[in-house]
Specification:
Shape: globular
Number of helices: 16
Bound molecules: flavin-adenine dinucleotide
């Protein structure tokens, strides 16, 4: 049964929502969580993640503080490097083409480490991402790309740990409880209308935190805001993020903010289902394209696969694939690099072909101009600067010369059988446009005034990401702004 009253209502049960709920409870107020999904599908996109989380750290001592289980032996065999705040700021500015909101990014970066330490106090654990973010060089692992830790147990582990922490704090999570609208008057937000297992009711409260994700799972809004063709994208995660929180806030006069025509989208198996499949998680993604090339239906390359580390290109290349004829591409590799392919290339549900010759491979690439594909690969091979050494841990400058579409790093010739190819389409992760908030995570109206009692965190906050995104920042943003929103809502509820 839903209560008729409480102090703080949190809408959503992903990472941002659960951080908000925990933080609000610290003010000693009653907190409830409304989750639209049934329990076995709860946790939003957060549950689909690998749990990779980007934060600023100055060296191995910071990592040891976060992960006291890190053994001397692990430290000895690993070069963890550092990821200072300045580098995090630079990465955010560079990938967003200097559009990221200065006040929001300041909070994101400067509070990243302390927020993870705060989550630790609730029993969350973190581990180094050896599998995906570090390669072995001369017997030592070396981390690259600023992304070094993941939540223990990945996304499912993170969701379960946050749920356990919430239960311990006396926070009730109600499933199949879809928030429909906000109750609002001149003094601010007074409650939420909710449909719980088919029955509509009202919960009166002193503050609401919206943390119900973006509009990536709503094909009508995708087409309306992202543009034609986006109705054809596959959704990587939850089917429940249809923009409800954004809509509810706009209906009471909230100000939209950010890159409403932009989103995070990646190369995703061409035959993946319409929405994410929790049994596969993020396994449909295909993130090893920097070691190979991508061909479209015309048998041509269309993007610089080695423009930067994958963490800084993968989130914008889904849109590039969506713009290709038929909205697909094939990723091509030869034997020299197949040992570098990430584990998602070895799942059972993969669209893959193999061949002993380039001609045979091209013939197997469904819907591709085969003769042009062979020509493209041969031209590419001839353009590779093989005099420069290949090194996957650094931007090695091993590039092509003279091609209309260059490859700037990690250009290996494709000449050693067996050859492998993987078909990808565009998989949308989350949308960038959302609500305008203050540095206290309070939602702002179209006149620029904070709306009393209304806070927001996570994917539905606009202004942080434009055009692109550094891998691992979504969970960090949800944690930082979830905590801020919860703290603000808890204090406001206690005072109201
Ligand atoms: C396959 C995949 C892999 C990813 N990998 C990573 C990664 O490794 N690292 C990283 O940082 N990010 C990753 N991301 C992005 C990351 O998942 C998101 O940035 C982050 O989880 C968003 O958190 P959130 O709490 O804002 O939203 P979500 O976790 O999506 O939670 C939103 C919640 O709101 C609920 N909801 C929606 N509408 C309503 C309503 N009307 N009423 C009540 N509840 C509602 C949903 O059911 C859901 O529980 C990945 C995403 C996907 C899909």
């Amino acid at each position: 049964m839903l209560p008729e009253r409480c102090d703080v209502v949190v809408v959503g049960a992903g990472n941002a929502a659960m951080c908000a709920a925990l933080a609000a409870r610290e003010s000693g107020v009653d907190v409830i969580v409304l989750e639209r999904a049934p329990e076995d599908e709860s946790g939003g996109n957060t549950r689909f993640t690998a749990g990779a989380i980007r934060f600023a750290y100055d060296g191995v001592d910071d990592l040891r503080a976060l992960m006291p289980d890190l053994s001397d032996e692990e430290v000895a065999r690993t070069d963890f490097g550092s990821y200072p705040e300045d580098k995090f700021f630079d990465d955010m500015a560079r990938v967003t083409e200097n559009r990221t909101d200065p006040d929001l990014v300041e909070l994101l970066v400067r509070r990243s480490k302390s927020t993870l330490m705060w989550l630790r106090t609730y029993g969350l654990r973190f581990v180094p991402i050896y599998g995906r973010q570090a390669f072995k060089v001369d017997g030592r692992f070396k981390f690259w790309g600023g992304l070094t830790v993941e939540a223990w147990g990945g996304g499912p582990g993170l969701v379960d740990a946050e749920k356990r922490a919430a239960e311990k704090q006396g926070i009730a999570v109600h499933y199949e409880a879809r928030a429909l609208s906000l109750i609002h008057d001149d003094t601010g937000v007074q409650g939420v209308v909710v449909k719980h297992r088919g029955r509509t009711s009202t919960i009166r409260c002193r503050a609401v935190v919206l943390a119900s994700g973006g509009f990536e799972s709503n094909p009508e809004w995708r087409t309306r805001y992202l543009g034609p063709g986006w109705d054809l994208a596959k959704v990587r995660g939850t089917r429940f993020n249809t923009g409800d929180g954004i809509r509810m806030a706009l209906e009471i006069g909230a100000s939209p903010k950010g890159n409403w025509s932009g989103c995070h989208a990646v190369g995703w198996d061409r035959n993946a289902p319409e929405f994410g499949d929790l049994a596969v998680g993020d396994g449909f993604q295909k993130h090893s394209y920097p070691w190979g090339i991508m061909l479209n239906a015309n048998g041509e390359r269309f993007v610089d696969e080695g423009a930067d580390f994958r963490n800084y290109t993968y989130a914008k290349y889904g849109a590039v694939i969506l713009r290709q004829p038929g909205q697909f591409a094939w990723q091509i590799f030869d034997r020299k690099v197949t040992h570098l392919l990430r584990d998602e290339y070895r799942i059972r549900q993969v669209t893959k072909v193999t061949a002993g010759t380039l001609e045979e491979l091209a013939g197997k690439l469904e819907d591709v101009n085969a003769s042009r594909a062979v020509e493209t690969i041969l031209q590419y091979n001839a353009a590779v600067r093989t005099d420069i050494a290949f090194d996957p841990n650094v931007k090695d400058g091993r590039r092509t010369e003279g091609l209309p579409v260059p490859k700037s790093n990690w250009a290996n010739t494709i000449d050693t059988p067996p050859f492998e190819a993987y078909a990808v389409s565009c998989g949308i992760t989350f949308t960038f446009g959302g609500l305008r908030i203050t540095t206290d995570a309070q939602v702002v109206d179209t006149d620029g005034m904070p709306i009393p009692g209304l806070y927001a965190a996570g994917e539905l906050v606009g202004g942080l990401f434009y055009f692109n995104y550094p891998g691992g920042t979504g969970l960090m943003s949800g944690s930082v702004f979830g905590r801020i929103a919860g703290t603000s809502a808890g204090r406001a509820a206690a005072a109201r």
